[in-house]
Specification:
alpha+beta; single chain; 20% helix; binds fe (iii) ion; 9 helices; seven-stranded mixed sheet; binds calcium ion
């Protein structure tokens, strides 16, 4: 990549001059003096549709708005250029550029790069979605703790030819855990301000594997809690007790998240919220219904002095019909989408574990930060998954730092009730595994749990064709070895019209 980049740098500098001249804005966007590589954070793509996508970069080291040139080509050598133009990198957005591209032919790979003055970004590869594909390969990932492990799993993903990465949260961590060996350090205190969160995201993009993954594949992202602070719920802090202080921290964290993700410019709402629930369509084959289970949820039920998620033993509030995970609008949006579903596979993609997870402490014991803390909301979502238009519902999630394959039953309390959906939960990409005290008994106490591994990090590879989904749980051989490879921990299949796992 570097050799190619040097080779084309001269041609690009000339092209950049041409763009600046042609834009007529040469004086207001005069090429800045560059002390460092403005494209040190790399490039990314996301939000794929049949005729376009979003391209991202963030120009660093600049103190004013600049215009970045961009090129989109059919080939990696940029001989057959399809599009050129400029996009604003605004200082108020930390130099982030979110370029929404439309009007391209469907189902093709595209190569792109940005430039500023004589500086050229690395080359990114992305693709427009095919109009009616018969196969699709996705990766599901969550929970990447900088200190806990190398991000080697991304090399495996690139090697496997993944078409899109579903990153369902804990993209960054805001804190150290201090509970085991670390491979590297954040080197800074927990972020609080916008500059702090920008620095944390920038640190993440200095990871060669993560940066290469963004350049190689489109990411479809939605945050969970650690992008702000542990176990927050809507407008209630999970750590920060003072409400005004929490809302300031959340606003800073959300803006920094937006600035670093390949999201549509319109994802950042006027009030500072992010529009993260949305759909992606692979023709009639599959629809990803990406959910946001963090931004609109009501506080975890049954608090007992401690903030955030906790084990609750016997507490009626877990069945409060007024409690919500998705919020009213998103709940209605999900139900409408599933009621009108046209795809063979409905991939309902969200942050955590959806299935009931009975704990050993008491018959009704549950962890309050997952769907278990919101029983009535889960029942409503289950009713939506059961809509007649839904042929195959598959829940995809993460958060619990362990691999799970579950049968979602109409009534988890009745092992004879109908299986209405399959659930695939990915482990952490790089972090410690889940609490053994809670998970060691999970299979015995929860007959709907058909597979559980709480000993590996990794990600999930999903091969989707009309008559089945082949699932490959990819485990990282060692988080401590930066050259580690992945291996197949287990393979399972979901058959068309046969929800669940044997
Ligand atoms: Fe996590
Ligand atoms: Ca989480």
């Amino acid at each position: 990549m570097l050799g190619r980049r040097e080779l084309f740098a001269g041609a690009i500098a000339l092209a950049a001059e041409r763009f600046l001249a042609a834009s007529g804005n040469r004086s207001s966007f005069a090429a800045p003096r560059l002390a460092t590589d403005p494209f040190a954070l790399g490039v990314a793509s996301g939000e794929p549709v049949t005729d376009g996508f979003v391209l991202w970069t963030r120009a660093v080291g600049l103190d004013r708005d600049v215009r970045l040139g961009y090129e989109i080509a059919h080939d990696e050598g940029f001989r057959a250029i399809a599009r050129t133009g400029t996009v604003t990198a605004a200082a108020a957005r930390g130099g982030a550029a979110h370029l929404e591209v439309r009007g391209l032919p469907a189902g093709r790979p595209w190569f792109y790069r940005f430039h500023l003055g004589g500086a050229v970004s690395r080359v990114g590869r992305t693709a427009t979605l095919p109009a009616n594909p018969t196969r699709l390969r996705l990766a599901l990932t969550s929970c990447q703790h900088w200190e806990h492990g190398w991000f080697s799993a991304y090399r495996d993903m690139i090697g496997e030819g993944v078409e899109a990465v579903l990153q369902v949260g804990d993209y960054i961590y805001e804190k150290s855990f201090g509970n085991g060996p670390d491979v590297r350090s954040f080197g800074s205190p927990d972020p609080v301000t916008l500059d702090d969160y920008r620095a944390r995201h920038a640190l993440y993009r200095s990871d060669a594997d993560l940066s290469a993954a963004h350049a190689a594949m489109p990411f479809i992202v939605a945050f969970d809690d650690h992008e702000v602070e542990n176990d927050y719920a809507g407008d209630q802090g999970g750590v920060t007790a003072d409400r005004a202080a929490f809302l300031r921290r959340r606003a800073a964290a959300w803006q920094a998240y937006f600035e670093h993700m390949p999201l549509r410019p319109s994802a950042l709402r006027a009030g500072g919220g992010l529009q993260l629930y949305r759909r992606f369509h692979w023709g009639r084959l599959a629809t990803v219904h990406m959910l946001d289970t963090r931004q609109y949820r009501s506080p975890q039920p049954c608090p007992s002095g401690k903030r955030g998620g906790q084990i609750v033993l016997d507490c009626d509030a877990v069945r409060d019909p007024a409690a919500t995970v998705l919020g009213k609008r998103q709940e209605a949006w999900l139900d409408r989408g599933l009621a009108r579903e046209k795809s063979i596979w409905s991939l309902v993609t969200q942050q955590t574990i959806f299935s009931r997870l009975a704990l050993p402490q008491a018959p009704d014991a549950r962890y309050s930060d997952i769907w278990d803390g919101y029983e009535a909301a889960r029942q409503r979502a289950t009713a939506s998954l059961s809509r007649p238009a839904v042929r195959n519902a598959v829940l995809l999630g993460g958060d619990v730092h362990s691999f799970w394959l579950n049968n979602i039953r109409a009534d988890f309390g009745d092992p004879a009730s109908k299986v209405i959906a399959s659930e695939v939960v990915t482990s952490c990409l790089a972090s410690r595994n889940g609490p053994a005290a809670l998970f060691d008994t999970a299979r015995a106490l929860n007959p709907h749990v058909r597979f559980l591994d709480n000993a590996h990090a990794g990600y999930v590879l999903l091969d989707i064709v009309p008559d089945r989904i082949d699932i490959d749980l990819r485990a990282v051989a060692s988080l401590a070895d930066p050259a580690a490879r992945c291996f197949s921990l287990a393979r399972r299949t979901i058959a068309d019209r046969r929800p669940g796992f044997d």
